[in-house]
């Protein structure tokens, strides 16, 4: 990961001063680097000896960082990873453009690696992520969003990049379909688990503690699984409450507490975490097909880490 | 070009309804398709017989369309090609995300073609364009912008894509360095000419007629070559005027007319057009290295067309 971090910082450079300034703000603000780790482990586990996986891992992180920059603009978010969002410090305009720059750099780096198959996988993920975000725009502020709609959104906006990040490991290591499919499946299931845990954490997790970063999704009118479950199980009065807050964005003091109360009442947070655990179990299952050893263990630890964030 | 248009419309599709809606709004609103035409002509002139140039041409147009969507958000523009800008119809959020989707699709299409060299050229252009836009953000609202600063911006934000669009023609047709360099040089020079003409047209062209689309750059505080030239030649009072309007965005009735008056007084529009002609001449010079015939003639016509828009 040291090589990946070094490459990330060097490729975030540009003669245009604002670009490294914004990129480094985000890159050095302590993301978990989960996605690039998947790429490295999924190549190293096959004894891959080149440097291509480092470059692909850095591209994956750039794609992710570009998405974060654009997401914050789209969601009008003020905070990201406990710091002011880039758009609050440098404006929406710079966030959009620096995101575009990082995406361009990501593709240049993939081209350097020279694997058309890895390029196909990652460029497809890039289009799918954007599709997922557009889909989420449509689902936002619509309390009629079904569980299936919601899963379609998170598959595209989150799980697809986890899947691609893992799949390019065996690709660069010259493996066949079975290994590529297993790595992809591991990444996809982990991605689902990761997003569900994130969604539960946004309401304080299964313990529903009111931490400092709680309630962003609620305030932005985002319909996530806990809400979908609570709405499906709620009374007409509950639905009216969700409709006012999420569709109408008419949120008063005490509404977030009321929302969390409803989520607890209908077991919506606990059940979201339960589903995350199930996806995590599927990810572990996929690992059984991949070679055993320390990299396989690290990938299993990643699953445990994702789930542990919430419990 | 019929094949390119067909491919563009089919690849702008998505199950997510909003995507084809927005993409087609922009794609069918009568862009000049100048960039994809360069790719086709620069491949066909070497007797290229495959279909890869059509796919590359469509990718180039997608990259351009994605840039337009993001530009309108960044510039807060209301109009694009005489229609309401996508961001006014569907919002900034959808414009950012659909731009991202089109960029992802563009890379997928390039991967389909399978030329790593074309991928390298176009992904580099993609990063350079974004760099140019960030540079322009810094230059906007700064009347101290020099002519060199300005040329650096337009090389990156406009000429680089023209150059890449032309260069991938001989690349896909399997030509050597000399032909690639000539095509690139043709595209680059044409790109400069194109942008300078655009800048002059934004103030009514050399005749300085006040058409309906005049004054956007002025209202957005953009520093373009006509303004750079007029500021360099103006009095202190003139500088105060430009400073108030472009840096302070304090624009009153009659200010645009006053700006055009100053541009005429200091020959700034005529000289901008003169420079465009010189770049156009360089483009024609580059064509001498490329094979003669109907495609070479079409590329020469493209130069004449660009210049004729303003005179």
From TrEMBL, chains A, B:
Pfam families: polyprenyl_synt. InterPro entries: Isoprenoid_synthase_dom_sf (IPR008949), Polyprenyl_synt (IPR000092), Polyprenyl_synt_CS (IPR033749). Keywords: Magnesium, Metal-binding, Transferase. The keyword Disulfide bond does not apply. Its cofactor is Mg(2+). Belongs to the FPP/GGPP synthase family. This is Polyprenyl synthetase family protein. It comes from Roseibium sediminicola. The lineage of its organism: Bacteria, Pseudomonadati, Pseudomonadota, Alphaproteobacteria, Hyphomicrobiales.
């Amino acid at each position: 990961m040291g090589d990946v971090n070094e490459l990330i910082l060097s490729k975030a450079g540009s003669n245009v001063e604002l670009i490294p300034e914004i990129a480094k703000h985000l890159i050095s603000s302590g993301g978990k680097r989960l996605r690039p780790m998947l790429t490295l482990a999924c190549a190293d586990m096959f004894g891959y000896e080149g440097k291509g996986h480092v470059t692909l891992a850095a591209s994956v992180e750039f794609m992710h960082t570009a998405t974060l920059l654009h997401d914050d603009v789209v969601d009008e978010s003020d905070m990201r990873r406990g710091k002011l969002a880039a758009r609050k410090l440098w404006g929406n305009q710079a966030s959009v453009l620096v995101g575009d720059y990082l995406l361009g750099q990501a593709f240049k780096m993939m081209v350097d690696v020279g694997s058309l198959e890895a390029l196909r996988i990652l460029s497809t993920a890039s289009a799918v992520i954007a599709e997922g975000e557009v889909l989420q725009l449509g689902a936002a502020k619509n309390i009629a969003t079904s569980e299936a709609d919601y899963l379609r959104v998170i598959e595209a906006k989150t799980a697809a990049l986890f899947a691609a990040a893992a799949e390019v490991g065996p690709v660069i290591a010259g493996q066949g379909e079975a290994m590529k499919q297993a790595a992809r499946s591991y990444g996809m299931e982990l991605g689902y688990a990761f997003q569900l845990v994130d969604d539960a954490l946004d309401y304080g997790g299964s313990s529903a503690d009111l931490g400092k970063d709680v309630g962003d999704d609620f305030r932005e009118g985002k319909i996530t699984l806990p809400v979908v479950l609570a709405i499906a199980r709620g009374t007409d009065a509950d639905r009216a409450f969700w409709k006012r807050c999420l569709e109408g964005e008419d949120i008063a003091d005490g509404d977030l507490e009321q929302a969390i109360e409803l989520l607890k009442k209908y077991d919506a947070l606990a059940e979201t975490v339960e589903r995350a655990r199930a996806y995590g179990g599927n990810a572990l299952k996929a690992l059984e097909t991949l070679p055993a050893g320390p990299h396989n263990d690290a990938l299993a630890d990643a699953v445990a880490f994702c789930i542990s964030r919430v419990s």
